[in-house]
Amino acid sequence: MDTYGNDGSGGAGAGRRTFGIEEELLLVDPGTGEAVPLAGALLDLYVRPLEVASGPVLTAEFQQEMIEVVTPPHATLASLERDIITGRGIARQAAEDVGVRVAALGTSPLPADPHPVQLRRFRAMAEEYGLTAREQLTCGCHIHVSVESPEEAVAVLDRMRNWLPVLIALSANSPFWHGVDTGYASYRSQVWNRWPSAGPLEILGSPDAYHQLVHDMVSTGVALDEGMIYFDARLSRHYPTVEIRLADVCLRPGNTVLLAGLARALVETAAREWREGIEPVAVPSALLRLAAWKASRWGLRGELLDPHTHRPAPALGVVNSLLHHIHGALKDMGDLHRVEDLVDRLLAEGTGAVRQKEVLHRTGDLERVVEDAANCTVSTS
């Protein structure tokens, strides 16, 4: 996946747009539920199984209390789903080898004292950004979707930006922070947006404009390097993909599968609009920030901002608008029925945030919230 093109391996290629997932998981003590800084020990012992030599891998992240599971690119939702489940299983076993568990939680429900991984870049970030960096123990889900050219990539960023806040609502899985109920469905979004380089993009129109913006941001010295360009969706620095970055890590594997299916269809729909000469919707990024805040606050249990009118609307109606918007792409890629089923299940069962709060209401114990989350993380049902 290191060049743009039509060979079906990295670029969209003959109508087969590939996609892959990066999921960040918390490492938690099985007894207390607290986040524990054992990523280094885990990765020192971790050996990639031979039977999944081309499958998901585990990598380090910013804090030692978390690891990341990365899948390779896939052409079908079914094969990606298998790797998401496999990757979480590998993470579970690796965690058990050092006496901990993995939990797909956007934030730690219990108080935590994060420890940055001891790499020069991470140490520099911790020194430069102070409390923002020190408290940045958040777990997200990043979705890479292949594109055929830099021109298509930027056209996609321009045309799907007004739909991205809906993914925050669908993935919301972080209602607790330092032992407190925040009142947010996705408090991770609030913590993440403390980074000065995070948030929505304006419409850019060309690869040159995108790269000039990145260059200008790094030149200010506020963003230390290109890796710190934390747009809600951005061009990957290493692969011919658009990377959608604003979702919480999902509690259940099925919710991650749903996000992936929606993300690929959003990219495909945006690319088709570009090829058909449809101009992007000229909504200011300030309104997109408000839409993201609304989604972060309420998840699916309240109103969102309608991506067409930018006015409050019931969450169910906004989700249905999203499905209508990407219906053709979902159908053409064979994902329609699976995505519709997963949406129905999510609406019936609630997001990860809803489940966390229900467990707390039932047990009165945040440790039980973490325990339940660790069980859901590796569930295949």
From TrEMBL:
Origin: domain of life: Bacteria
Record's keyword terms, sorted: ATP-binding, Ligase, Nucleotide-binding
EC numbers for this chain: 6.3.2.2
Entry's family note: Belongs to the glutamate--cysteine ligase type 2 family. YbdK subfamily.
Coiled coil feature spans: none
InterPro entries assigned: GCL_type2/YbdK_subfam (IPR050141), GCS2 (IPR006336), Gln_synth/guanido_kin_cat_dom (IPR014746), YbdK (IPR011793)
Pfam families: GCS2
Name under which the protein is recorded: Putative glutamate--cysteine ligase 2
Biological role: ATP-dependent carboxylate-amine ligase which exhibits weak glutamate--cysteine ligase activity.
Catalytic activity: L-cysteine + L-glutamate + ATP = gamma-L-glutamyl-L-cysteine + ADP + phosphate + H(+)
